[in-house]
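Write out structure tokens for Hemolysin III.
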Amino acid sequence: MQITIREPGSAITHFIGMMMAVFAAVPLLIKAATASGSAAFTAMAVFMLSMILLYGASATYHSLTVSDKVLRIFRKIDHMMIFVLIAGSYTPVCLIVLGGPLGYTLLAVVWGIALFGILIKALWITCPKWFSSTIYIAMGWVCLWVFGPLWNTLPKSAFLWLLAGGVIYTVGGVIYALKLPIFNAKHAYFGSHEIFHLFVMGGSICHFIFMYRYVL
């Protein structure tokens, strides 16, 4: 039986991302459970689960060859998971690094934005790419609000990984929003969207290293 993948480049990149996240979750959660206790384990579990869901939803959406009605549902889920990943990435920082009223306030803000974004995608999946990217990027950089406390709490080297992840995600978001023709001219299965996928994976790797080395 022949298996047809609708968008091979996008599907394969994020299938690889999903498998990397699954395998990476094991040492991170073991370290969280043994070194930092149940609260840290829960926060890191949310972080890794959000990553696995993002890459799993994306790989599934780009793989399916189904009716337009069904595909629209999976497209919504794919886009919703971006908000989940961003909020999931904030969760360990809010609960472990910051803690207290400031950490819980930031946690409520980012998950509130995530729920707002999920609602937008549920009701308006055809919204312009620039609109979605603006929300993604703005949500990602809400951390500037707590830059001072983070700077005073974390080792300075931690900011290299935290900042690198943020910048890589942002560049990927810009590429996604602009969808520059130069990236799509010569490669039918590898264009601007697939490049965006690679930037997302790069940002995830940076933030995983940040979590493993500095947050726990």
